[in-house]
Amino acid sequence: MTLSHADADVGKAGMAGELEPWLAFNKGPGLLDEEGRQYVSAFPPADLMELTTTERTEIAFTEHGVTCSRALSAASPVPLNKFARILDFGCGVGRLARMFKGFSGEYVGVDVHQQSIEWMQGALPYVEAYQTTPRQPLPFPDNHFDCVVSISVFTHMNEADQRFYLSELKRVTKSGGTLLLTVHGYRALSRAVNEERIFQMMNTPREELELALTSLADGSGFHFYNQMAHLSSEAYEYGITFSNRNYLQRVWGEYFNVLNVVAGGIHDFQDIVVLEAR
């Protein structure tokens, strides 16, 4: 298959060009055409892809990256490729970062998982990737970033850790900057209760889901279940977290202006919380 001149131009431009043609290229010629593959980012090993997305194929990993990019772009008040400095907080093994090949600004990824960061450092030269330590300050100066993105991170934190990192993100984000952070809200909780596939994926007892329903409907608006999963350690409790809009307005509003909560914005599952630094 011969790559068309138009597709080649899209591939060469990458994130510096128009977003939608670039995302479509990643799912089309960049994935399926041998010539097109030279323009897209490398793929991580299957075991690292599975750790981030529960999927082991390049097709599924690309789909995750494209879907997340589209959703964040739709929620953002500024096109993603127009920011100057982006922090990908909890970047994993680059499902989102892969889409930023050709980005003209500074793209920084941080994660606590050593193997993921080591792979990104070797395979994605346009990303500044750093391994961080749980509950320790981020290695960046104050007011450094004008955008922060974070997918499937605050969905797994207890309240104390959320507050710590909200404070850190407030510190490193410029006034007026945009933050796009995902949470489990009513949509994710409803699907976990009613869909067996989602219930199995979340690995959370039904009684915990019932407690979460009560908390979101009548209680604090926040519920955390400690799973003691793959990233759990003495320094970090990894679990499943649910929060509602009122909680986000009340608690996250202490740190940022809460502009919007896009229900089910990621895969009709996670909510996207749109924040403005002040």
UniProtKB/TrEMBL annotation:
Top-rank taxon: Bacteria
Keyword annotations of the record: Methyltransferase, Transferase
Record-annotated Methyltransferase type domain positions: 87-180
GO MF annotation: an example: S-adenosylmethionine-dependent methyltransferase activity
GO BP field: methylation
Signal peptide: none
Spans through the membrane: none
Keyword set includes Methyltransferase: yes
PANTHER family recorded: METHYLTRANSFERASE
Name of this protein: SAM-dependent methyltransferase
